[in-house]
Amino acid sequence: MASYKKVYLKPGKEESLKRFHPWIFSGAIMRFDPRPEEGEIVDVYTANDDYIATGHYQIGSIAIRVLSFKQRTIDKDFWKERLSIAMDVRRCIGVAGNPNNNTYRLVHGEGDNLPGLIIDIYGKTAVMQAHSPGMHFAKDEIAAALMQVNDEVENIYYKSETTLPYKAELGQENGFIAGGSSDNIAIENGLKFHVDWLKGQKTGFFVDQRENRALLETYSKGRKVLNMFCYTGGFSFYAMRGGAEIVHSVDSSAKAVELTEANINLNFPGDTRHKAFAEDAFRFLDNMGNDYDLIILDPPAFAKHKEALRNALQGYKRLNAKALSKIKPGGIIFTFSCSQVVTKENFRNAVFSASAISGRNVRILHQLTQPADHPVNIYHPEGEYLKGLVLYVE
Protein backbone atom coordinates (compact mmCIF):
# COMPACT_ATOMS: atom_id res chain seq x y z
CA MET A 1 0.00 0.00 0.00
CA ALA A 2 1.45 3.35 -1.07
CA SER A 3 1.94 6.04 1.56
CA TYR A 4 0.42 9.39 0.56
CA LYS A 5 0.44 12.79 2.22
CA LYS A 6 -2.49 13.34 4.55
CA VAL A 7 -5.24 15.95 4.40
CA TYR A 8 -7.37 16.53 7.51
CA LEU A 9 -10.90 17.91 7.28
CA LYS A 10 -12.59 20.31 9.64
CA PRO A 11 -15.06 18.71 12.08
CA GLY A 12 -18.28 17.69 10.32
CA LYS A 13 -16.95 18.35 6.81
CA GLU A 14 -16.84 14.64 6.00
CA GLU A 15 -20.64 14.35 5.73
CA SER A 16 -20.75 14.75 1.92
CA LEU A 17 -18.02 12.10 1.60
CA LYS A 18 -20.13 9.69 3.64
CA ARG A 19 -22.69 10.16 0.85
CA PHE A 20 -19.90 9.41 -1.69
CA HIS A 21 -19.82 12.85 -3.28
CA PRO A 22 -16.46 12.99 -5.14
CA TRP A 23 -15.49 16.63 -4.46
CA ILE A 24 -13.84 18.21 -1.42
CA PHE A 25 -13.87 22.00 -1.37
CA SER A 26 -10.94 24.03 -0.09
CA GLY A 27 -13.01 25.47 2.78
CA ALA A 28 -13.48 21.99 4.24
CA ILE A 29 -9.75 21.43 4.79
CA MET A 30 -8.33 21.93 8.30
CA ARG A 31 -4.64 21.10 7.68
CA PHE A 32 -2.11 19.18 5.60
CA ASP A 33 0.50 16.69 6.81
CA PRO A 34 2.63 17.80 4.96
CA ARG A 35 1.29 20.16 2.25
CA PRO A 36 0.98 18.32 -1.10
CA GLU A 37 2.07 19.58 -4.50
CA GLU A 38 -0.48 20.42 -7.19
CA GLY A 39 -1.81 17.18 -8.75
CA GLU A 40 -0.42 14.93 -6.01
CA ILE A 41 -2.39 11.95 -4.67
CA VAL A 42 -3.48 12.41 -1.04
CA ASP A 43 -5.28 10.41 1.63
CA VAL A 44 -8.12 12.27 3.34
CA TYR A 45 -8.88 11.92 7.06
CA THR A 46 -11.59 13.28 9.33
CA ALA A 47 -10.76 15.56 12.25
CA ASN A 48 -10.90 12.39 14.38
CA ASP A 49 -8.11 10.81 12.29
CA ASP A 50 -10.39 8.33 10.48
CA TYR A 51 -9.54 7.55 6.84
CA ILE A 52 -12.32 8.50 4.44
CA ALA A 53 -11.01 8.92 0.84
CA THR A 54 -8.07 9.08 -1.59
CA GLY A 55 -7.89 11.62 -4.40
CA HIS A 56 -6.03 14.19 -6.49
CA TYR A 57 -5.17 17.49 -4.79
CA GLN A 58 -5.21 20.79 -6.66
CA ILE A 59 -5.21 24.48 -5.81
CA GLY A 60 -8.66 25.99 -6.25
CA SER A 61 -12.24 25.80 -5.05
CA ILE A 62 -12.50 22.05 -5.69
CA ALA A 63 -9.37 21.08 -3.76
CA ILE A 64 -9.62 17.28 -3.96
CA ARG A 65 -11.29 15.05 -6.55
CA VAL A 66 -11.91 11.65 -5.01
CA LEU A 67 -10.60 8.58 -6.82
CA SER A 68 -11.47 5.99 -4.17
CA PHE A 69 -13.39 5.74 -0.93
CA LYS A 70 -11.30 2.70 0.01
CA GLN A 71 -7.65 3.04 0.94
CA ARG A 72 -5.60 1.73 -1.95
CA THR A 73 -2.63 2.44 -4.18
CA ILE A 74 -3.43 4.49 -7.30
CA ASP A 75 -1.27 2.71 -9.89
CA LYS A 76 -1.49 1.02 -13.30
CA ASP A 77 -3.75 -1.71 -11.88
CA PHE A 78 -6.15 0.94 -10.56
CA TRP A 79 -6.40 2.67 -13.96
CA LYS A 80 -6.84 -0.63 -15.78
CA GLU A 81 -9.62 -1.70 -13.40
CA ARG A 82 -11.54 1.59 -13.76
CA LEU A 83 -11.16 1.65 -17.56
CA SER A 84 -12.25 -2.00 -17.81
CA ILE A 85 -15.44 -1.19 -15.90
CA ALA A 86 -16.08 1.81 -18.16
CA MET A 87 -15.56 -0.39 -21.22
CA ASP A 88 -18.00 -2.98 -19.87
CA VAL A 89 -20.64 -0.27 -19.48
CA ARG A 90 -20.21 0.82 -23.13
CA ARG A 91 -20.53 -2.76 -24.32
CA CYS A 92 -23.63 -3.19 -22.16
CA ILE A 93 -25.38 -0.18 -23.71
CA GLY A 94 -24.38 -1.21 -27.24
CA VAL A 95 -22.15 1.66 -28.32
CA ALA A 96 -18.85 -0.27 -28.21
CA GLY A 97 -18.24 -3.21 -30.53
CA ASN A 98 -20.94 -1.97 -32.91
CA PRO A 99 -19.80 -2.00 -36.60
CA ASN A 100 -22.38 0.68 -37.39
CA ASN A 101 -21.00 3.01 -34.70
CA ASN A 102 -17.36 3.45 -33.67
CA THR A 103 -17.86 6.78 -31.87
CA TYR A 104 -18.62 7.00 -28.16
CA ARG A 105 -17.45 8.37 -24.82
CA LEU A 106 -15.46 5.81 -22.89
CA VAL A 107 -14.78 7.89 -19.77
CA HIS A 108 -17.10 10.62 -18.50
CA GLY A 109 -15.30 12.02 -15.46
CA GLU A 110 -17.24 11.61 -12.22
CA GLY A 111 -19.84 9.51 -14.07
CA ASP A 112 -17.20 6.79 -14.40
CA ASN A 113 -15.55 7.42 -11.01
CA LEU A 114 -12.59 9.07 -12.75
CA PRO A 115 -13.10 12.77 -11.93
CA GLY A 116 -11.13 15.11 -14.13
CA LEU A 117 -10.77 12.66 -17.05
CA ILE A 118 -12.57 12.51 -20.41
CA ILE A 119 -11.87 9.91 -23.12
CA ASP A 120 -13.77 9.85 -26.43
CA ILE A 121 -13.31 7.06 -28.98
CA TYR A 122 -13.32 7.80 -32.72
CA GLY A 123 -12.66 4.50 -34.48
CA LYS A 124 -9.03 3.59 -33.88
CA THR A 125 -8.23 6.90 -32.17
CA ALA A 126 -8.94 7.83 -28.56
CA VAL A 127 -8.91 11.51 -27.60
CA MET A 128 -7.99 12.01 -23.95
CA GLN A 129 -8.66 15.22 -22.04
CA ALA A 130 -7.52 16.06 -18.50
CA HIS A 131 -9.44 18.62 -16.44
CA SER A 132 -7.21 18.33 -13.37
CA PRO A 133 -3.42 18.38 -12.82
CA GLY A 134 -3.62 14.94 -11.22
CA MET A 135 -5.06 13.36 -14.35
CA HIS A 136 -2.49 15.24 -16.43
CA PHE A 137 0.39 13.71 -14.45
CA ALA A 138 -1.17 10.23 -14.77
CA LYS A 139 -1.78 10.49 -18.53
CA ASP A 140 0.93 8.02 -19.60
CA GLU A 141 -0.20 5.33 -17.14
CA ILE A 142 -3.81 5.89 -18.22
CA ALA A 143 -2.84 5.66 -21.91
CA ALA A 144 -1.00 2.36 -21.32
CA ALA A 145 -4.02 0.94 -19.46
CA LEU A 146 -6.36 2.12 -22.24
CA MET A 147 -4.37 0.23 -24.91
CA GLN A 148 -4.74 -2.93 -22.80
CA VAL A 149 -8.46 -2.49 -22.18
CA ASN A 150 -9.51 -1.54 -25.73
CA ASP A 151 -7.55 -3.48 -28.36
CA GLU A 152 -9.20 -1.51 -31.18
CA VAL A 153 -7.44 1.71 -30.13
CA GLU A 154 -4.19 2.30 -32.03
CA ASN A 155 -3.78 6.06 -31.49
CA ILE A 156 -4.19 8.23 -28.37
CA TYR A 157 -4.32 12.00 -28.86
CA TYR A 158 -3.93 14.10 -25.71
CA LYS A 159 -5.91 17.36 -25.90
CA SER A 160 -5.77 19.32 -22.65
CA GLU A 161 -4.25 22.71 -23.44
CA THR A 162 -7.55 24.53 -22.82
CA THR A 163 -9.00 22.33 -20.05
CA LEU A 164 -6.25 22.39 -17.42
CA PRO A 165 -6.09 25.26 -14.91
CA TYR A 166 -3.74 27.83 -16.47
CA LYS A 167 -2.41 28.91 -13.05
CA ALA A 168 -0.94 25.43 -12.55
CA GLU A 169 1.65 26.30 -15.24
CA LEU A 170 1.91 22.71 -16.45
CA GLY A 171 3.35 23.70 -19.83
CA GLN A 172 0.94 21.32 -21.50
CA GLU A 173 0.97 20.81 -25.27
CA ASN A 174 -1.52 18.79 -27.28
CA GLY A 175 -0.20 15.80 -29.20
CA PHE A 176 -0.17 12.05 -29.69
CA ILE A 177 0.79 9.89 -26.71
CA ALA A 178 0.53 6.76 -28.87
CA GLY A 179 0.35 6.25 -32.61
CA GLY A 180 -0.18 9.27 -34.84
CA SER A 181 -2.69 8.42 -37.57
CA SER A 182 -4.08 11.26 -39.68
CA ASP A 183 -7.23 9.25 -40.50
CA ASN A 184 -9.90 11.39 -38.85
CA ILE A 185 -13.08 9.87 -40.28
CA ALA A 186 -15.39 8.19 -37.75
CA ILE A 187 -18.83 6.56 -37.97
CA GLU A 188 -21.92 7.35 -35.92
CA ASN A 189 -25.09 5.35 -36.57
CA GLY A 190 -23.89 4.61 -40.11
CA LEU A 191 -23.03 8.22 -40.98
CA LYS A 192 -19.43 9.35 -41.56
CA PHE A 193 -17.85 12.54 -40.30
CA HIS A 194 -14.46 14.23 -39.99
CA VAL A 195 -13.23 14.73 -36.41
CA ASP A 196 -11.09 17.81 -35.83
CA TRP A 197 -9.32 16.70 -32.67
CA LEU A 198 -6.38 19.01 -33.49
CA LYS A 199 -8.24 22.35 -33.39
CA GLY A 200 -11.91 21.52 -32.84
CA GLN A 201 -13.99 22.16 -29.74
CA LYS A 202 -14.17 19.58 -26.93
CA THR A 203 -12.48 16.42 -28.24
CA GLY A 204 -13.37 17.27 -31.85
CA PHE A 205 -17.08 16.33 -32.00
CA PHE A 206 -20.11 16.55 -29.73
CA VAL A 207 -20.60 12.86 -28.97
CA ASP A 208 -23.31 13.67 -26.41
CA GLN A 209 -25.96 14.48 -29.06
CA ARG A 210 -25.89 11.09 -30.82
CA GLU A 211 -29.30 9.88 -29.65
CA ASN A 212 -30.90 13.30 -30.02
CA ARG A 213 -29.62 13.50 -33.61
CA ALA A 214 -31.18 10.10 -34.27
CA LEU A 215 -34.50 11.39 -32.91
CA LEU A 216 -34.29 14.46 -35.13
CA GLU A 217 -33.89 12.20 -38.15
CA THR A 218 -37.35 10.73 -37.53
CA TYR A 219 -38.90 14.23 -37.67
CA SER A 220 -37.07 15.48 -40.76
CA LYS A 221 -38.95 13.98 -43.72
CA GLY A 222 -40.26 16.66 -46.06
CA ARG A 223 -39.30 19.51 -43.72
CA LYS A 224 -37.25 22.66 -44.25
CA VAL A 225 -34.57 22.41 -41.58
CA LEU A 226 -32.46 25.13 -39.96
CA ASN A 227 -29.53 23.97 -37.85
CA MET A 228 -28.27 26.87 -35.72
CA PHE A 229 -24.83 26.69 -34.06
CA CYS A 230 -24.21 23.75 -36.38
CA TYR A 231 -20.52 23.27 -35.44
CA THR A 232 -19.48 20.37 -37.75
CA GLY A 233 -23.02 19.62 -38.93
CA GLY A 234 -24.07 16.61 -36.85
CA PHE A 235 -27.78 17.42 -36.82
CA SER A 236 -27.61 18.50 -40.48
CA PHE A 237 -26.51 15.21 -41.96
CA TYR A 238 -29.04 13.27 -39.85
CA ALA A 239 -31.77 15.58 -41.22
CA MET A 240 -30.50 14.92 -44.74
CA ARG A 241 -30.74 11.15 -44.24
CA GLY A 242 -34.18 11.62 -42.72
CA GLY A 243 -35.48 13.03 -46.01
CA ALA A 244 -35.52 16.77 -45.32
CA GLU A 245 -36.53 18.98 -48.24
CA ILE A 246 -33.75 21.47 -47.49
CA VAL A 247 -31.17 21.79 -44.71
CA HIS A 248 -29.47 25.08 -43.85
CA SER A 249 -26.55 25.08 -41.38
CA VAL A 250 -25.42 28.24 -39.55
CA ASP A 251 -22.35 28.88 -37.40
CA SER A 252 -20.33 32.00 -36.65
CA SER A 253 -17.12 30.02 -37.30
CA ALA A 254 -16.06 29.75 -40.94
CA LYS A 255 -13.94 26.71 -39.98
CA ALA A 256 -17.01 24.96 -38.53
CA VAL A 257 -19.01 25.72 -41.70
CA GLU A 258 -16.17 24.30 -43.80
CA LEU A 259 -16.21 21.07 -41.76
CA THR A 260 -20.02 20.89 -42.00
CA GLU A 261 -19.83 21.03 -45.79
CA ALA A 262 -17.08 18.38 -45.80
CA ASN A 263 -19.24 16.09 -43.65
CA ILE A 264 -22.28 16.60 -45.89
CA ASN A 265 -20.14 15.72 -48.93
CA LEU A 266 -18.85 12.59 -47.17
CA ASN A 267 -22.39 11.27 -46.85
CA PHE A 268 -24.35 13.01 -49.62
CA PRO A 269 -21.93 14.02 -52.39
CA GLY A 270 -23.45 16.45 -54.87
CA ASP A 271 -26.69 16.80 -52.89
CA THR A 272 -28.05 20.31 -53.49
CA ARG A 273 -30.49 20.30 -50.55
CA HIS A 274 -27.82 21.65 -48.18
CA LYS A 275 -26.43 25.16 -47.76
CA ALA A 276 -24.15 26.49 -45.01
CA PHE A 277 -23.76 30.06 -43.72
CA ALA A 278 -20.95 31.54 -41.63
CA GLU A 279 -22.97 34.11 -39.73
CA ASP A 280 -23.92 35.20 -36.21
CA ALA A 281 -26.90 33.16 -35.02
CA PHE A 282 -28.96 36.03 -33.63
CA ARG A 283 -28.37 38.12 -36.74
CA PHE A 284 -29.41 35.20 -38.97
CA LEU A 285 -32.60 34.65 -36.96
CA ASP A 286 -33.43 38.37 -37.14
CA ASN A 287 -33.05 38.48 -40.91
CA MET A 288 -34.52 35.13 -41.94
CA GLY A 289 -38.08 34.68 -43.20
CA ASN A 290 -40.74 32.23 -42.05
CA ASP A 291 -39.58 29.40 -44.30
CA TYR A 292 -38.45 26.79 -41.78
CA ASP A 293 -40.61 24.17 -40.05
CA LEU A 294 -37.83 22.36 -38.14
CA ILE A 295 -35.24 24.37 -36.19
CA ILE A 296 -32.36 23.12 -34.04
CA LEU A 297 -30.99 25.43 -31.33
CA ASP A 298 -27.84 23.88 -29.84
CA PRO A 299 -25.71 26.82 -28.65
CA PRO A 300 -22.42 26.59 -26.75
CA ALA A 301 -22.68 26.94 -22.98
CA PHE A 302 -24.12 30.38 -22.16
CA ALA A 303 -23.04 30.02 -18.50
CA LYS A 304 -19.91 28.29 -17.24
CA HIS A 305 -20.26 29.52 -13.64
CA LYS A 306 -23.12 30.57 -11.35
CA GLU A 307 -22.32 34.28 -11.66
CA ALA A 308 -23.27 34.11 -15.36
CA LEU A 309 -26.57 32.26 -14.78
CA ARG A 310 -28.92 35.25 -14.99
CA ASN A 311 -27.46 36.50 -18.26
CA ALA A 312 -27.45 32.96 -19.66
CA LEU A 313 -31.16 32.49 -18.96
CA GLN A 314 -31.88 35.79 -20.69
CA GLY A 315 -29.87 34.53 -23.66
CA TYR A 316 -31.82 31.26 -23.85
CA LYS A 317 -35.11 33.18 -23.59
CA ARG A 318 -34.14 35.61 -26.34
CA LEU A 319 -32.85 32.88 -28.66
CA ASN A 320 -35.91 30.66 -28.27
CA ALA A 321 -38.34 33.59 -28.58
CA LYS A 322 -36.82 34.48 -31.97
CA ALA A 323 -37.14 30.92 -33.25
CA LEU A 324 -40.66 30.46 -31.86
CA SER A 325 -41.85 33.67 -33.51
CA LYS A 326 -40.43 32.73 -36.93
CA ILE A 327 -41.14 29.00 -37.29
CA LYS A 328 -43.99 27.88 -39.56
CA PRO A 329 -47.25 26.68 -37.96
CA GLY A 330 -46.93 22.97 -37.23
CA GLY A 331 -43.18 23.39 -36.89
CA ILE A 332 -40.85 21.58 -34.49
CA ILE A 333 -37.99 23.03 -32.45
CA PHE A 334 -35.17 21.01 -30.89
CA THR A 335 -33.72 23.34 -28.23
CA PHE A 336 -30.82 22.61 -25.86
CA SER A 337 -28.67 23.90 -23.02
CA CYS A 338 -25.31 22.32 -22.22
CA SER A 339 -24.57 24.65 -19.29
CA GLN A 340 -24.03 22.62 -16.13
CA VAL A 341 -25.15 25.49 -13.87
CA VAL A 342 -28.48 25.77 -15.75
CA THR A 343 -30.91 23.28 -14.20
CA LYS A 344 -33.71 21.53 -16.07
CA GLU A 345 -36.15 23.84 -14.29
CA ASN A 346 -34.12 26.95 -15.20
CA PHE A 347 -34.04 25.97 -18.85
CA ARG A 348 -37.68 24.98 -19.03
CA ASN A 349 -38.70 28.29 -17.45
CA ALA A 350 -36.61 30.21 -19.99
CA VAL A 351 -38.33 28.37 -22.85
CA PHE A 352 -41.71 28.89 -21.15
CA SER A 353 -41.04 32.66 -21.05
CA ALA A 354 -39.94 32.60 -24.69
CA SER A 355 -43.15 30.81 -25.65
CA ALA A 356 -45.25 33.41 -23.83
CA ILE A 357 -43.39 36.21 -25.62
CA SER A 358 -44.06 34.58 -29.00
CA GLY A 359 -47.78 34.17 -28.22
CA ARG A 360 -47.81 30.74 -29.92
CA ASN A 361 -49.40 27.53 -28.64
CA VAL A 362 -46.48 25.25 -27.76
CA ARG A 363 -46.40 21.60 -26.69
CA ILE A 364 -43.46 19.65 -25.24
CA LEU A 365 -43.08 16.41 -27.20
CA HIS A 366 -39.83 15.14 -25.67
CA GLN A 367 -37.56 16.01 -22.75
CA LEU A 368 -33.99 15.14 -23.69
CA THR A 369 -30.72 14.59 -21.87
CA GLN A 370 -27.24 13.18 -22.44
CA PRO A 371 -26.85 9.58 -23.68
CA ALA A 372 -25.93 6.54 -21.62
CA ASP A 373 -22.22 6.77 -22.46
CA HIS A 374 -22.26 10.08 -20.54
CA PRO A 375 -23.53 8.51 -17.29
CA VAL A 376 -24.44 10.51 -14.20
CA ASN A 377 -22.94 9.27 -10.94
CA ILE A 378 -25.96 9.03 -8.63
CA TYR A 379 -23.87 10.63 -5.86
CA HIS A 380 -22.85 13.51 -8.16
CA PRO A 381 -26.02 15.04 -9.68
CA GLU A 382 -23.93 17.93 -11.06
CA GLY A 383 -22.91 15.53 -13.83
CA GLU A 384 -26.29 15.94 -15.53
CA TYR A 385 -25.46 18.88 -17.77
CA LEU A 386 -27.32 18.44 -21.10
CA LYS A 387 -30.95 19.53 -21.20
CA GLY A 388 -33.20 19.50 -24.25
CA LEU A 389 -36.83 19.98 -25.27
CA VAL A 390 -38.60 19.06 -28.48
CA LEU A 391 -41.43 21.52 -29.05
CA TYR A 392 -44.44 21.43 -31.39
CA VAL A 393 -45.51 24.95 -32.35
CA GLU A 394 -49.03 25.58 -33.65
Total discrete domains: 3
Counting H and I runs of at least 4 residues, what is the number of helices? 10
Task: Find the CATH topology of the largest domain.
Answer: Rossmann fold
In N-to-C order, the SSE pattern is EHEEEEEHEEEHHEEEEHEHEHEHEHEHEE
What is the rounded Rg? 22 Å
Query: Major β-sheet, in short?
Result: 7 strands, mixed
Strand order of the largest sheet: 16-15-14-17-18-20-19
Per CATH, the superfamily of the largest domain is Vaccinia Virus protein VP39
- Indicate the overall shape: globular
* Helix percent band: 25-40%
**CATH class categorisation of the largest domain:** Alpha Beta
Give the low-pLDDT segments. Answer: none
CATH architecture title of the largest domain: 3-Layer(aba) Sandwich
* Strand residue percentage: 25-35%
Classify the secondary structure makeup into a structural class: alpha/beta
End-to-end CA span:
65 Å
The counted number of beta strands is 20
